[in-house]
């Protein structure tokens, strides 16, 4: 009797000591965390930590996350990761960020406030409001899992807007002919930036301009190209839209040569009078040079793709990185694997069935050299090289003025605004790079999935074109008409053949997809089994071993021998 009592008292004392330790001492212990992820995705980047050191006054973050049953599971998991990231910001800010987590129920006062500040109800709220005393509140109207690599940048951008609410100064220099208007875009730029429009004949860039947007430099004189050359080498940041077609704006042959030299000094080239056609992304086979790039054609780990779904280009060129260049060439927009770079006169003619992806927009960072080694206009040579340039080149100008449809125009504006906003951002924000997504797929599995997707695109392209032609012909021969409750079946030979074709081709596409993705699905299933089964099996074996060991130690009762 004494032994069980002593054991119970000992356990009670241990429990009381454990509770006392948690209540008194745990709060005084340092918060030790270790990030074991491969690319340190669970730790704030040094650039973010540097930004947080610049905080002088406290900020309030109001994180609205509705926990409603209708919310998709992927959003619920992402909401948890966003909350963890916001807590990391709060912890690293050393008291200069106060995080308030709010779960607004429908028709509540919190939901009313979220809607009042412009957060999106989709359904439920999943956004962030940042506030600073004496400043206009800033918001992230909705977090999107597709933008997870940009999550740190997204939150840091909000902080920067609270710290520096004044618009950035941006210059605009256009060499477009008078008939090509980009006025709607210019009005949008005036709303977001302190925009200074320069004359096409400018011989220098004012010193107060640190970021310049350049449109169609083929139409600019040589002295203006020299000013741009010196601006970039002097540390200025440039967003350039260059067209492969002359459009009647080129001043002289020497200007065109200088422009090619300018690009070469930055480590990039673009063939002139060569137009990109893309039958995969083109909505009409009669206009293959006008096509809409989906999100998978973008660099989703670059700020230019932030909140962007599509980009429409027309008569665009292609950019190529020079072999001897030391600058980092980062593609931002790519065409499909069926795209072709052809002479501008050949657009509309028969095209080969196979092509290759081409770069339409790219970010250039790194060493660069001047295209004016001997100076210009009798003046001595200026800056001849730079250790680091910041340039974004887009091989299209029509995207600024001619995309059909309101949604396409808005999407193109967003691409321009993203790129320009990032270039004009304070250095503390510009240094923040997108992060790899935690929990990414195994490399082998990702490669297999990418190979299957590539093979499907290549093999399905012709079937999809045949299906589109068949559907179009079917609609032409069998238009929608007003009919009574019952109608006769058309048994004409041509319609029957078309109907069989339009029903058979989707089945072939489905079979092709299943065939190509079957090895990937088997590998995924095997990986899941390897991840799920071994640990429970190991625990069961350990438990069984302990049970057998204890069983051997149990004394055998005397009655077992009788």
Automatic annotation (TrEMBL):
Coiled-coil annotated residue ranges, if any: 442-473
UniProt keywords, alphabetically: Coiled coil, Membrane, Transmembrane, Transmembrane helix
Pfam families found in the cross-reference section: ABC_transp_aux (PF09822), DUF7088 (PF23357)
InterPro entries: ABC_transp_unknown, DUF7088
Domain DUF7088: start-end pairs: 39-123
Domain ABC-type uncharacterised transport system stretches: 170-418
Annotated TM spans: 529-547
Record's protein name: ABC transporter
Organism: Pseudomonas veronii
Lineage: Bacteria, Pseudomonadati, Pseudomonadota, Gammaproteobacteria, Pseudomonadales
